[in-house]
């Protein structure tokens, strides 16, 4: 069976672009199956966590049709993590909208992306990265032995790359801001966030925490980088 080194698969899920970039000796058939497992997983997550689908578990909780404790284990895990992050950030991280409804968007995308990337590893892939919107989880190195280098999109022009970063092996990068999805970040007391910069990028060993820390750091504004970097192995920078 013939193998290929560089392969790329693209799609859309959770309201944003999704892509898998593979740099590995793997058959196209095996790579396609791995990609399909990722896409099926993300569709399932969207079906359960979307605030736009009336049949999702989050919508049913918001509508009073489902008690939080009766939700699926994944939903309970995500909501527990959101509660922990709210306490950790002294209320800056907030999984509730101004109307009181639950919206775990500040955590669930990074959590889902890290889980999805693990499916690629289970499928036998060793060198790849998975991108969901501004969140990237890597595994291994490029076939050249170099780290994965990824571009950070201009928060004002999605067709332009403003910066690039070399990601340490098996680490992740997450970017939070309002450019791609508009206002989806709510700070303390469910107030809309209006920071001094347009995006914050966080690099660290786990995407779910890098994504959450980027959201919190963005909401904190001027003290955001200092807050993020109190956690070992996590670093941050901003774009105006």
* Helix run count: 6
Into which percent range does the helicity of residues fall? 25-40%
- Given as residue ranges, the uncertain stretches (5+ residues, pLDDT < 50) are none
> Gap between N and C termini, in Å?
49 Å
CATH level-1 class: Alpha Beta
- From the alpha carbons, calculate the radius of gyration and give it in angstroms: 18 Å
Task: Tell me the number of structural domains.
Answer: 1
The overall average pLDDT, rounded, is 89
In spatial order, strands of the major sheet run 1-2-3-4-7-8-9
Q: Can you tell me the CATH superfamily? A: ApbE-like domains
The proportion of strand residues reads 25-35%
Secondary-structure blueprint of this entry?
Blueprint lengths: L3 E10 L2 E11 L1 H22 L7 H6 L10 H16 L16 H18 L5 E5 L2 E5 L8 E7 L2 E11 L4 E6 L21 E6 L2 H14 L3 H5 L6 E5 L1
Antiparallel strand pairs: 1-2, 2-3, 3-4, 4-7, 5-6, 7-8, 8-9
Helix pairs in contact: 1-4, 4-5
Structure description:
- By secondary structure, this protein is α+β, with helices and mostly antiparallel strands.
- It has one domain (4-239): T-fold, CATH 3.10.520.
- Helices cover 34% and strands 28% of the residues.
- It is built from 6 helices and 9 strands, in the order ββααααββββββααβ.
- It has helices at 28-49, 57-62, 73-88, 105-122, 207-220, 224-228, and strands at residues 4-13, 16-26, 128-132, 135-139, 148-154, 157-167, 172-177, 199-204, 235-239.
- It has a 7-stranded antiparallel sheet. A two-stranded antiparallel sheet has the order 5-6.
- The model has no long low-confidence stretch (mean pLDDT 89).
């Amino acid at each position: 069976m013939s193998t290929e080194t560089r392969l790329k698969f693209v799609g859309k899920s959770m309201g944003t672009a999704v892509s898998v970039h593979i740099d590995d000796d793997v058959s196209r058939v095996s790579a396609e199956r791995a990609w399909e497992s990722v896409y099926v997983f993300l569709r399932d997550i969207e079906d359960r966590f979307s605030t736009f689908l009336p049949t999702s578990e989050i919508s049913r909780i918001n509508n009073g049709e489902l008690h939080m404790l009766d939700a699926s284990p994944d939903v309970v895990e995500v909501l527990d993590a959101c509660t922990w992050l709210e306490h950790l950030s002294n209320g800056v991280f907030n999984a509730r909208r101004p109307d009181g409804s639950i919206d775990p968007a500040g955590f669930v995308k990074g959590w889902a992306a890290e889980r999805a990337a693990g499916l690629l590893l289970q499928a036998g892939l060793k060198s790849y990265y998975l991108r969901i919107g501004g969140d990237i989880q890597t595994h291994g190195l490029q076939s050249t032995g170099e780290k994965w280098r990824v571009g950070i999109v201009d928060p004002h022009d999605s067709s332009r790359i403003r910066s690039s970063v070399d990601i340490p092996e098996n680490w992740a990068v997450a970017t939070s801001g309002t450019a791609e999805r508009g206002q989806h970040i709510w700070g303390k007391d469910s107030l809309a966030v209006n920071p001094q910069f347009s995006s914050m990028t966080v690099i660290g060993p786990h995407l779910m925490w890098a994504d959450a820390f980027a959201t919190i750091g963005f909401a904190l504004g001027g003290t955001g980088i200092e807050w993020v970097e109190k956690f070992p192995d996590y670093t941050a920078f901003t774009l105006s």
